Structure formats: structure tokens, C-alpha cells
Amino acid sequence: MMKKSLLKKVSASTAAIFTMAALAASGTGVYAVGSPTLGTSPANPLQPPASTATVILKKDIVLFNADASRILSPNVTYSYEITEANVTNATVTTPNEEGEVNILSVRPGVIEALSTSGDVPETTEKVEGSITFGAADDEHNNDSEMHDANRNPDTVIDLSKKVSGSMEITVDAGKIYDGNNDGQPDNPPGVYRYKIEDVTTDATTTSSGIQRGGADTSIFLDVYTKYNSNNDGLEIYGYVLLRSTNGTDVSLEYDSTVEQETIKITGFDIESENNNISGGKVMLADLKSDSYHTYNVEVKYETAGDLADKQHNFPFRVELSNRLVTSRADFYYQITKDGTDKTAVNTSLSQTGSWTLDGNSADPANDLRLRSGDKIVITGLPADTKIKAAETNDTDDTYTFSAVGNGNSLTLKDDGNHTDNSLAIGSNGTAEMNDGFGVRSNDTTDKIVFTGTLKSVSITGLMFSISPFVFITIAGVGLLVLVIRNKKSSDSKSKL
């Protein structure tokens, strides 16, 4: 009898292996996640089983910066809808503890049994929720190299440089069993499947500076229920979050013996979206997560010429604009004066995608006055932000102002709309960049250097410049002397 029993188990196990191999080869397009059956625990078991389960749905955004500076999180709210999955003829197929094939039918999730941490009212058709990024203290570091979509697709991305958020989904087994709360069971034990869809609009992500990564917008939640010890209700003994490669609510084959079929997910996060992740890194071409690209810019003032005042603080104006990012994009700036860095100031673009810091303003908070060697560094600007800088000459001298951006001369414009690479600016005049300096896909910080020039006056040149007037004056005086002498001589002769 023992030999027959052992032979039966071996035969069943062999049949299960062949069956699962055939199912795995059928190409359902779904990532399996362990072996959740009534005999074995799901990928996320509840120990002990409970009347409610809290599922944590995660979301990640990969961060980028031009020179690996600390940057602020983007301001964006992701929206989600949870509905019952279309489970027509859907089953979960897996070997049980005896090695035999076990098939469980899948039922549509009961919406009334769900609630989320979002403050959106529940409905009988769907449950809504959200994950918000960008709290006031939500600062994140990124010490990896800057990567841009136009660069080599073989660039390796460090996926640990990210910002993370989460949402709680609570499942109530009592409302699955008796949704009407009338004491009569509505649903039996089994697997209940929900579809979770990211319904965040492109307009929302674009206005926040987010670049979509192309990951699937839908994932699935399977909730495993069984009768409680009194057989008068249900309890949850585990759940599974999973992703379908083709987006459909298809049957699943859980098979832990197939390596590529054992991937479980935790939401719309890096590990879930970039399933080919290896060692925490992925090729740029394979990046599926949403990303946030930021850049930095430095505006510096220098002097040239022996008469240029190196101690004078000239008023500067810095204007930022971004026609796409209008969702309070956060960044920060730091002013360096006399070789000392001031405290960094957190700020943000307005709802119109603009921001100005003006040294001519009466507001002390806008005090941007730079002397020779001083600078302002703005860090964490969202991609495609443009910058325009201007300098005002508030002295009585005439300075010649010029500007260079990343090694190239920039065209300046004065108050009379004259444009040139360098302009002579008199008292209370302003020289500003004629066009916005694009901050886009650079690998390093963009640098703009304003130079104010006031050269020494040549004494020789001064003499040459006034010599005609000197000669005219001397000639006039000489002529006057001759006239007077002639008059005196005439008067003397007439007396004789």
C-alpha cells in the first residue's frame, strides 16, 4: 500500500509538472506570483487569517539631476480607479500540497468590500484613490549621473534614486460574504479579483514635469478568502498583486518552478514596472517607470577694467518660465556673497509656470544684488525651463556689459531695444538677455556669466581729444593780444 501511495504521489507530481509546463507555454501574458491555493499560502499571506486585509499600493518616480544635486520632489497627484475584474471563465491553476493540479475559479471583486486611504466617496461601480507627491518637507537626494532621453539608450540608470508614495486599500471579508448585511450569505469562499487602473491624465503629469515611462496602467489584486472557524462568515488568508502583460483579465497559472513566472508586484513601483531589473539598475532604453528630469543654472557677476568697482552690488533680475510645467514645481536657490554661501531658499514656479527674483524690488526677500565674484545657483528646475537674466547699472559711470552662457556669447538688449553681444549702459540703464537661455538636456549645470567693464581713461588720449579746443583757445587769446597791442600802438601815434 505504501508503495502504491508513493507511486501515486510521484505520478501526480509528474502530471502536475507536465501540466504546468504546458500552461506556462500557453502565453497568457501574466506574471505569476507564487503558489496561492487553499493548501498553500498566497504571495502575501495573512497570519493568522483576518476579517480585513490592508493592501499597500506603491508608486515610484525616478529622479534625475544635471550634477547629482539634492532636488525637491515633483508636485503631482496620481489618481486610481478600482473596479471588479472581468473574470469570465477565469481560473487560478496551481499544484497543491500533494503535487496534484488544483484549479480555483475566480470571481469578480465585490466593490462594496473595498475602501481606500483617499478621501473620495465609494460607489457601487468603483472605488477611487490617489497618491500625492510633493509635501513641503518632501526632499530627496539623487547622487547619480544625469540622464536624458536624447542620450545613449545603453546608459545605465540607478533605480535607487527615486521618490516613493503609497496608498492603502482595505478589503472587508464580511462585506464580501454578506454585502447587504441582512444575515444571508451573498458570496462563497474563493478568489476575488479587482482591477486597479492608473487614470492619471497626461495633462496632470505634463504640468508637473513628469515624463511617463510607458508601464502598464492596469494591475490586478486577487483576494483569497475561506470560511471562518464557525463557518458563518469569510476571512482573508492572503492576497496577491499582479500584472498582466496584455492588460486583459485572463486566467493565471501560478508556477514557482518557472523562474520568469514567479514575479510578484507591489504596485506601480520600480520593481514592478521594470521587471528586468538587475542589481538595482536598468538601461535607459528599458526604463518603464515615470521619471522627473531637473537641471541647474548659475548666474555670476564679474568685473573687468581698472576702474570697475569690485565692491559695488549691482541689482540683478532673474526670470524663469516654463510653458508646460504649471503645477507649482519646487526648486531652490542659493546666493554666494563674498565667498560665503547664504542659506538655501525653497521656492516654486507659479501656476502660470513663471518665477522672478528682482534686485530692484523693494521687497527684501527679492534682494538679488551681486558684486564681482558673487553668484546665484538655482537647483532642481524641471526640464524645459528657460531663464532670462538682467543687470541694472545704478552708478553714475557708464559700464559695458556682456554675457556668456556655457562658453558662448549671449545677445543683450538695452532699454532702447538695441541688441549686441556687449552694450554700453549708462546710469539707471539695464542690460538683459535678449532671449531666454534654454535649460533643457545638458549634462552639467548651465552657467551664465555677466561681466561689467569700466576701463582706465588714457591721459594721452584725453590730451589728444581736447587739443583742438586748446589750439582754438590759444589762437583766440593770441589774436586778442595782437588787437590790443595794435590799438595801443595806434593810440600812441595819434598823440604825437
Please give a structural write-up.
By secondary structure, the protein is an alpha+beta fold. It has three domains: 2-289, Immunoglobulin-like, CATH 2.60.40.3050; 294-453, Immunoglobulin-like; 466-496. It is built from five helices and 35 strands. The strands form five sheets. Strands 2, 7, 11, 13, 17, 19, 21, 22, 23, 26, 28, 29, 32 and 35 form a 14-stranded mixed sheet that branches. Strands 1, 4, 5, 6, 8, 12, 14, 15 and 16 form a nine-stranded mixed sheet that branches. Strands 20, 24, 25, 27, 30, 31, 33 and 34 form an eight-stranded antiparallel sheet that branches. β14 and β15 form a beta hairpin. It is elongated, with a radius of gyration of 38 Å.
Judged by helices, strands and strand pairing, the structural class is alpha+beta
pLDDT averaged over residues: 80
Which term fits the overall shape? elongated
CATH architecture type of the largest domain = Sandwich
